Amino acid sequence: MLKLNSLEELNGYSFQSFIFEVQEDKVLINNLKDQIKIEILYSQNKKMKLIEKIYKQTGLKIALNKLEDKELLAFIQDKGFEKTLWSPIGKAMHDYNMIEEGDRIAIGISGGKDSLTVLNALVRIKKISGIKFEIFPIHIHPVEEGGKYQEIKEYCNKLGVELQVIETSIGESILTNEELKNPCFICARVRRGLLYKEMKKQNINKLILGHHKDDLIETFLLNVFYQGNMGVMKPAYYSEEYGLKVIRPLAYVEEKEIIRYAKKLSLPILHNDCPYETSENSKRLKVKKLIEDLSKDSPNIRSVMLNSIKDLFV
Questions:
Q1: All structural domains of the chain with their residue ranges
Q2: 57 close to 29: Cβ distance less than 8 angstroms
Q3: Residues of the chain by 3-state class (helix, strand, coil), percent to 5
Q4: Cα–Cα distance, 87 to 183 (Å, whole number)
Q5: Which CATH superfamily is domain 69-313 in?
Q6: Which residues contact 105 (CB under 8 A, 6 or more apart)?
Q7: Contact criterion met (CB below 8 Å) for 34 and 60
Q8: For the segment 82-126, what is each residue's pLDDT rounded down to a tens digit?
Q9: What is the pLDDT of residues 6-53, one digit of tens each?
């Protein structure tokens, strides 16, 4: 991976049999092996597209350390997601008054597709809304997994925000405790507690989580089927215990659209080593499969189900 502060630093760089020449509106690639010259045109606000083309032509991976505002928005707002991503995020933001002037907002960065997508969304909103607020990405990292978060840290820098990392040994204590009936619940609760503690230190008043429409529906069905109650995961709520507001901007976004977006932008997904995520005994995976099967006959079933429980969000 070649890391650059600006594309101009690529000028004169050699990689395998390729030598690069950067001009004002194009990059020339001399292939010394095949004795051919490749010309790639580009504009200043589409450098990420240029980087993709260079990779396809040469195999050279390039990462810009930081993007200018126009280039950053062009990258985040990749075409094809207005109706399925940006519009539902905007509607959720409006419906629940999620962001206000002067907010100090933490984002729980797990390193998965959901948290990185919601990070992009918040950076986009800050650039286009005119609302003044601060963004604090925070990653709770199990020490057992080593320093796997470096790529996410570099990605945050590229977006103009700094990733804070809190290391914990939570993974070891949970995985070795055979008496825990619901390790996922305990793990989430401990991680959230660490987040809240850090937010209080820094006077941060809101927390963004990456839960999406599928998460909200699945949680409701899990509570109905296995707990005998109608508990819901709300798009927004105020935590009296910790004195802050928790918001979920992806509440109206379907998971399949987040997957499509993450793949299109090649987001630096951090692989999750947790064995409970893919366990055959996972109740959430069973509910997820149930919804998927029902959607084959009723494609809009997720929206129908979400609308049916909206009154519970109040």
A1: 2-64, 69-313
A2: yes
A3: 45, 20, 35
A4: 35
A5: HUPs (3.40.50.620)
A6: 99, 122, 133, 134, 135, 136, 204, 205, 206, 207, 208
A7: no
A8: 999 999 999 999 999 999 999 999 999 999 999 999 999 999 999
A9: 889 999 999 999 999 999 889 999 999 999 999 999 887 778 888 889
